Predict the structure of Transmembrane 4 L six family member 4.
Amino acid sequence: MCTGGCAKCLGGTLIPLSVFGCLANILLFFPGGKVIDDNKYLSEEVWFFGGVLGSGVLMLFPALVFLGLKNNDCCGCCGNESCGKRFAMFTSTIFAVIGFLGAGYSFIISAVSINKGPKCRLDNAAWDYPFHNGDYLTDKSLWNKCLEPENVIPWNLTLFSILLVIAVIQMILCVIQVVNGLLGTLCGDCQCCGCCGGDGPV
């Protein structure tokens, strides 16, 4: 596949992943699918907006850049004829690194939250984090420690796991684009540049 076409495919995949990441993060503000009385009872990792910022907003920029590479003019970019497809592909690697860092941020927040467990009301009426080092992941009987919000453990665990998976996929796609972008920088895009069987040189 040509480097521009590959980038377009990656960009088209990143956009729905970004949307799903944002939605998962928003749903975390409604533990157990319910509105809680005071936001201070939410797990603090929810407020770090890993899905909205990391896998969402920061990922949209590289995704849009990747989508535009396929239609980039080989003879120039930004009105500068000395620029061209190779520079555009090199620029895409920078955006891919930005996307990787954003996804990495979401990955770290999600991993920390899964290991830490949710904030919930205990039997002494205090709101705290009752779990330690992910012990609740292997011992479901510990879930009884959380009295409110109802079903907060499976809710948080599911959504943060989704964010974790999305972040991993996004990081992989960004790494692929770094490689693809470097190849495009070296030989241009095959459909309009001669490296891969086109009609003429870059």
Q: What stands out?
A: Helices lie at 3-27, 50-69, 85-116, 135-138, 152-187. The longest helix spans residues 152-187. The radius of gyration is 22 Å.
